[in-house]
# Entry
Amino acid sequence: MGWITGEVVSEHNLELDPERLQLLGERVTDFITRYYQQLAGGEIFPPEATPASLRQLMDEPLPRQPQGVEQALDDFAAKVAANSTRVGHPRFLGWIRTSPLAVAVYAEALAAALNQSVAVWEGAPAATEVELRVLDWLKEMVGYPLSAGGILASGGSVANFICLLAARSVADPQIRELGLAGRTPLTLYITPETHYCVIKAAEMMGIGRRYVRVVETDDQLRMDPLSLAAQIDADCRGGLRPMAVAATIGTVNSGACDDLPGLLEVCQARGVWLHVDGAYGGLAGLDPEKRHLVRGLDQVDSLVVDPHKSLYIPFEAGCALVKDPAHLLAAFAVRADYLPNTERGVEESSLPVHLRDYGPQLSRSFRALKLYLSLKAYGVDAIAAANARQHRLASLLAERAAADPELELTAPVSLGIVTFRHVPPVPVGEPNPDAWLDEHNRRLASHLQRQGQTFVSATRVRDRTALRACFVSYRTQESDIDLILQDVLAAGRSL
Ligand SMILES: Cc1ncc(COP(=O)(O)O)c(C=O)c1O
# Structure
């Protein structure tokens, strides 16, 4: 049917006829079905992939003439999919990358079909309302007040930026008019465990790195409230303007959760905004066993959660929540002659909500749909149960690692992240045993990644290199723990 030839796409028929459209869908569906069927069988990291080999593979001229849809899809399978890391594999434990839910995968196509830019209500009426509904569901899942404002974002980095810009507009209501130049510096408080995106956010909003104060942590890698109080007080005495404390629930390195009640006390007594980066762990309370770690979350001024981490939503899906929606409007609302504008009192009334005024983007994808459909299709309880299993798997791996004389845990386990090291005998005469073990574990992580059956990342915890296994896939089972340990020990001994 000319499917392979250039006839399919030309200046005159960019529109596919219904028959071809149907075929296209079937081809894509076939691919996705086969991909998921074979996901657990293959190597996690594509064995032949190197930057040079992939650049050569993709070294294609601009296709002026159509090659046909079939050819394009075949190329996708052979060049792109075959050289992609199998992120949904049950033993892919690198960084924080989840296995997406199939409904959410297809929801991406449905959202693209409608092509709503969720910026002004009139341009995307249902999509705006779906996003507001999903935001309310997320608030309910976190236990955050339903009266809070919020917006979906690409991920934790941008969501943190959004929340901190809201904090900045409260600390300095004139900032959008006057800028920061020549004015008293604002300060932000983090710990050595804080994700770098928070520092980047501070840089992007004009707070120099020197005004990002790094507060000490305790033996659980949590921000120490007493040190925080002392630092804020010293800054106030020094004439600086404390803008916000950025706490974390579920640090990227080890999943540590700051003591929110302790930090709330310090912040509330001093009138300082308490922000929580819960990109990874903000939804931890879905697991009843972890609820104690999120105590106080309902009281913080702003909060980030990432559905593309713990809710099995494909990239990109982050969420910024701010207790008082007016603070988001203060940071982002702009009047424009060529667009509908946010009216005063929008939160209390039935006036249209224009989400462009709650964040930095104008054109915005309909990312709420994949959450909306997934939560409806699977239900929160099933997702919560899968989260809880991941937490149990992390504890199990930690127990087994702690009991093994060849392994060593490097940080307490709070949620689904385990950091540990292989500690074989250091060669006799080695002048720097610590450096040798660091290098050994760094090589071990990259060896495991290349070897294809267990993918862990490497990190530094308390100044030592460690392997880091992050359980965020609903596919990982208890039987995988044995395989992970076998792979780590065999690879460690072979190096
Ligand atoms: C605690 C924490 N905050 C922020 C981020 C950044 O989120 P994103 O990668 O979605 O931008 C991450 C990413 O892993 C994270 O773990």
Notes: The two ends are 55 Å apart (CA to CA). The mean pLDDT is 95. The pocket of pyridoxal-5'-phosphate is lined by residues 96, 155-157, 195, 197, 248, 250-252, 277, 279-280, 306, 318 (CB under 6 Å).
